[in-house]
Design brief:
- With about 210 residues, the chain is mainly α.
- Helices cover about 50% and strands about 10% of the residues.
């Protein structure tokens, strides 16, 4: 199972790409997936889902959405656990592309041959992060990821320049660095079979 955030919020399972809808459900999954293993308070989740216009009964609705994510989205592959007044996404860190992007980017900085790692970093980006999901937190998350991506490209450019100065640079490495600097430019993923959208939300929470 994979939970991609570097593009539309979806679930990849058994070769299928399954959209997560509506936006409230996508946000309730994306917010704790942003930092796997960290507790996100209920109040923070409410603000990330509804912004400043948190509806009456939001806490009950949030509990309903979290239950749906467990039953309809994650199933046996993970869970969203209640912890200390908040929620924690209990999945393997490698299941979330944002976490993998950060891990691979750090490894690429010190790797003797960072090319393969950077290649994998590029394939993780499928477009605008959290595409199709509205909200102030989403906009902040996109900006933060854009800065992280820019920092990776700058590190790569410096490293490749140093290697070129020693006669060890390569055109392929330069191409990968240039692709990383383009807005959301990445590797194309093969098309997979799409399943029906997952998730629903009570009418009074829309």
């Amino acid at each position: 199972m994979l939970i991609p955030l570097l593009g539309p919020v979806e679930l990849e399972r058994a070769g299928k790409i399954i959209p997560i809808r509506p936006p409230q459900v996508a946000l309730a999954l994306a917010a704790p997936a942003w930092k796997v293993g960290h507790v996100v308070s209920g109040e923070t989740l409410e603000n990330r889902i509804w912004g400043e216009q948190v509806p009456n009964g939001a806490r009950k609705t949030l509990y309903t959405i979290i239950t749906q994510i467990h039953r309809e989205v994650l199933g046996d592959d993970g869970d969203v656990l209640g912890r200390l007044g908040g929620y924690l996404l209990d999945v393997d860190e490698s299941a979330v592309d944002v976490t993998r992007f950060r891990t691979l980017a750090e490894r690429a900085v010190t790797a003797p041959d960072p090319g393969p790692l950077l290649e994998e970093v590029l394939t993780l980006w499928r477009g605008e992060p959290l595409a199709g999901v509205p909200g102030e937190w989403v906009e902040r998350a996109r900006r933060a990821l854009g800065e992280e991506r820019k920092e990776v490209s700058l590190r790569w450019a410096r490293r490749d320049r140093d290697r070129s100065g020693r006669g060890r640079g390569s055109a392929g490495a330069a191409d990968r660095g240039a692709a990383l600097r383009r807005p959301y430019g990445g590797g194309a993923r093969p098309l997979r079979q799409h399943g029906p959208p997952l998730g629903s939300v009570p009418p009074d929470a829309k």
